[in-house]
Amino acid sequence: MNIKLTEFVIFDVETTGLSPVDGDRIVEIAAVKVKGSQVVDKFYSLVNPKRPIPPQASLVNNITDDMIATAPVAADILPQMIHFIGGACVAGHNVRFDLNFLCYELALIGRRLHDQTPAVDTLKMARELLPYLSNHKLAYLARSLGVVVDQTHRAMADVELTVAVFLRLMDMAGDKDLQRVPVFLSQFGVEKPSFKLNQKTQSSLF
Fold first, then answer.
1. 83, 93, 136, 153: which one is catalytic?
2. Burial class for 120, CB neighbours closer than 10 Å (0-12, 13-18, 19+)
3. How far apart are CA 105 and CA 80, in angstroms?
4. 153 counts as catalytic
5. In terms of Cα–Cα distance, which of 35, 160, 144 is closest to 152?
6. Which of 106, 97, 78 is nearest to 15 (CA)?
7. What's the confidence (pLDDT) of residue 27?
8. C-alpha distances in angstroms, 84 versus 34, 78, 81, 103, 123?
9. Model confidence over 171-191: pLDDT tens digits?
10. Neighbours of 36 (CB within 10 A)
């Protein structure tokens, strides 16, 4: 199958810090579903982490305790994210960071992503397809590819920026004959983290 016929869910999380295993939690999640180079659906929510947001985190993402006070908790919103992903391939910029948070918080409630859900990193794509760039951070990469950068460090803004970058990188991958799904995933895929924290049944997971 050609990669352009594959369904992708590009997602991003904003968090209270850098490490879920040290107690940091998701405060915002956004995802955009893309197929055939077209956006077909979107998913978004603030998330109540059930703990104060450190000032240094708020300085980065501009999310405050007041904003998440009435937001759903992870146990309510993340299963909806699993449903949104469905059978798609997930993707993101430095996607391991976002996957660590998503998979850890799912594990806390006895859930997980489908074993067959592949994950692709646009940072890995950029480093391979654009090795001459001095910086592969999202905003710099976007500007290098002619994408207008407005807001950053909010989940949906970062996702929409990543989608624009991803579509351009996917065209470049096609030019290098990397458009077949197995080849594309082998080249740019990353392994999903596995956290076994809660052994609840997953009969309703898929």
1. 153
2. buried
3. 13
4. yes
5. 160
6. 97
7. 98
8. 12, 10, 5, 15, 23
9. 999 999 998 999 999 999 999
10. 10
